[in-house]
Amino acid sequence: MTPEENRPPLEPGQVATLSPRLRRVLCPNPSMMTGPGTNTYIVGTDDLVVIDPGPDHVEHVEAVAAVGSRPDGTNAISRILCTHTHGDHSPGAARLAELTGAEVLAFADRDGLVCHRHLVDGDAVTGNDFSLRAVHTPGHASNHLCFLLEEEALLLSGDHVMDGSTVVITPLDGDMGEYLASVQRLIDWTPAIEAIAPAHGHVITDPMAKLTDYLSHRLDRERQVVDALVATAPDGAGTAALVAAIYTDVPEILHPVARFSVWAHLRKLAEEGRATASDPDDADAVWLPVPGPGETVYLGP
Ligand SMILES: [Zn+2]
């Protein structure tokens, strides 16, 4: 993999060669949620697999299809994989399949995605010179798969791991407990993952540092949620009040996104018996701390 200082720039429409088996085309859909845009990856040299065709952006999908076009008019792209069914990842699959004749593979038909075949954890998608292993990584989305390019110990991580921003966990499909377990699973992976190619941003060349940072950041945040929640006893509080108490260093424009994160933490705490709400599935529920054995948190901090 290219060392970090020599890495190809993220330029929409350009085909960046990341390794002999891996190319990337950036979709021009930059935003607060997508960073520079969605990375579409192309794996293989003659029999090609596309990972995350992106949104149904005509020029982008045509640029990806062009990577596989052969002089005889056939197309080398035989399979299209989607890491999950969010709008910036999978809607381009139908158009790309039509242009190339490729099969569409993902965890499930959802959000408008129609698959030729479904993949489960451990499934292999192979070509002449590569093997991609599907790794079910629920958390950001319940149907999220990462793909491990085994020859390069490189993980195509979709939105499970991103370069430059944290991953948004939005209940109810998003699940903080599952997310942290999915991150831990990658940390424990043997043999170790040597690089991560995310759907947003550059290739991550020190994956273990990134993954352990992710875990410690989330656990720090969880401690803040617990402290803020305990301070609201005995009345309790909703996510908006907790965000205002916790995210004092974050501009208010980002608070609506932070509410999802706090809600996801509260739901994890509820599963662990450490917080409660009349309806944990309600985004506007009032939450209360649950005293641990021998604790009397309802009396206040
Ligand atoms: Zn997503």
> How far is it from the N-terminal to the C-terminal residue, by CA?
51 Å
Strand order of the largest sheet: 1-2-3-4-5-6-7
Label the overall shape: elongated
The largest β sheet comes out as: 7 strands, mixed
Distinct ligands: zinc ion
Average pLDDT over all residues: 94
- Please work out how many helical segments DSSP would assign: 6
Rg measurement, Å: 21 Å
Task: Please indicate the count of domains.
Answer: 2
Portion of residues in beta strands equals 15-25%
Q: What does this protein structure show overall?
A:
The protein is of the alpha/beta class. The protein has 2 domains: 4-205, Metallo-beta-lactamase, Chain A, CATH 3.60.15.10; 222-299, Winged helix-like DNA-binding domain superfamily/Winged helix DNA-binding domain (Arc Repressor Mutant, subunit A). 27% of the residues lie in helices and 20% in strands. The chain has 6 helices and 14 strands. The chain has helices at residues 58-67, 93-100, 176-187, 207-231, 239-246, 255-271, and strands spanning 15-19, 22-26, 39-43, 48-51, 77-81, 103-106, 117-118, 124-127, 130-136, 145-149, 154-158, 195-198, 275-277, 287-289. A 7-stranded mixed β-sheet has the order 1-2-3-4-5-6-7, with helices on one face. The protein has a 5-stranded mixed β-sheet with strand order 8-9-10-11-12, with no helix packed on it. Helix 3 (176-187) packs antiparallel against helix 4 (207-231) and helix 5 packs across helix 6 (255-271). The model has no long low-confidence stretch (mean pLDDT 94). Zinc ion binds next to loops.
